[in-house]
Amino acid sequence: MKDYFCTGSCECGQTRYAVTHEPLFTHLCHCTRCQKRTATAFYITIMVPEKEFMMISGETQNIFSTLDNGAQFGSHACPECHNYLYHTNMNYKGIIMPTGGTLDDTSWLDPKVHIYVKSKQPWLEISAGDRTFHEMYDLAEVWPKESLERLAAI
Questions:
Q1: Is residue 14 assigned to a domain?
Q2: Which residues of the chain, if any, have pLDDT below 70?
Q3: 111: number of CA atoms within 13 Å, CB side?
Q4: Nearest CA among 110, 107, 56, 112 for reference residue 85
Q5: 50 belongs to a structural domain
Q6: In a domain, 1, yes or no
Q7: 132: helix, coil or strand?
Q8: Would you say 89 and 31 are in contact if contact means Cβ atoms under 8 Å apart?
Q9: Contact at 8 Å (CB) between 75 and 62?
Q10: Which residues contact 61 (CB under 8 A, 6 or more apart)?
Q11: Are 75 and 63 in contact, with CB atoms under 8 Å apart?
């Protein structure tokens, strides 16, 4: 059996994926689109290079929409249970964004950055010390140097 950094699946288990290395970055998105898409207060955004993401079993049904900035946003879901497994965004070519809640083990997740806090649910408290951004941040100012180097190699 191959070792993976992490694995995940849809609710019914028909569609499974693996991430082979530590993600580039993880943040929480509080935009209203993510709230609607996940039916909760935020989306756990895990960003990994496409070459470090692999489908283990099953297929995905792909649904594309256009974001406010004009970028194409892809939602990739299990065709059986319709659980979103990952997303793509043409602004981040070569990046796959697995849905945090679909991970088999979420114990390692510890995002310290929150975006689109302008639309955060008022009852949700953000931990002291976490970085917050009214909208999106500049990757070069927020991401660790190692992640930026990996991103540049894509």
A1: yes
A2: 1-2
A3: 21
A4: 56
A5: yes
A6: no
A7: strand
A8: no
A9: yes
A10: 76, 77, 78, 79, 82
A11: yes
pLDDT of 100: 92
148: amino acid identity, one letter: L
Q: What is the CATH number of the domain that holds 142?
A: 3.90.1590.10
Question: Residue 67 and residue 134: Cα distance in Å, rounded?
Answer: 17
Where is 150: in which H helix or E strand?
Answer: helix 145-152
The amino acid at 58 = G
**pLDDT for position 139:** 93
Query: 123 in a domain, yes or no?
Result: yes
Q: Write 113-116 long-range contacts (CB < 8 A, 24+).
A: 113/25, 113/26, 113/27, 113/28, 113/137, 113/142, 114/27, 114/28, 114/29, 114/30, 114/42, 115/27, 115/28, 115/29, 115/30, 115/31, 116/29, 116/30, 116/31, 116/34
Q: Give the position of tokens 């995905």.
A: 60
Q: What is the DSSP string of 42-77?
A: -EEEEEEEGGGEEEEES--EEEEEE-TTS-EEEEEE
What one-character DSSP code corresponds to residue 99?
Answer: B
Amino acid at 132: T
Q: Tell me what pLDDT residue 2 has.
A: 54
Number of separate domains in the chain: 1
Domain interval for residue 13: 6-152
